[in-house]
Specification:
Layout lengths: L3 H5 L1 H21 L6 H9 L9 H23 L12 H6 L9
Amino acid sequence: MLPQTSLEDARLDDDIHQLNVEIVRLAFFLNIDIKNEAVVERLLENNLPNDHEHFYKLATLKGLILLRGHIHRLRQEHGVPDGKSPLEEEIFQRLNLGHYENEC
């Protein structure tokens, strides 16, 4: 477990922002609707196809989403405000990622 001060560190907020931006950027590149919970659950629960053209990008996106979820849980457990989710980031709004329909 992290000390309380680590979870409240302003640098961590910047890191979370960058993590969110990278999640949105990869989702845009891969044409994955991260606003659609079923699509995200399918990405997280299913094994990634080894022959997918962008296997490593999919694997990275999956790992980043899992990391963001872990950070969210840790902060929630310690009563620390979590800040913006990837869906609340300005880049998500600008790219309008909610309009995609994709199967992972």
